[in-house]
Amino acid sequence: MLGLICNIGALLLAFWAAGKLPRLRLWFHAAAFVAILASPLVAMILGLPDLFPEEEDSPGARFAFLPLIIETAIIVLLYCLAGAMLLSQSVHSAITDWRDGDRTP
Question: What is the pLDDT of residues 87-97, one digit of tens each?
Answer without folding.
Answer: 888 888 888 87
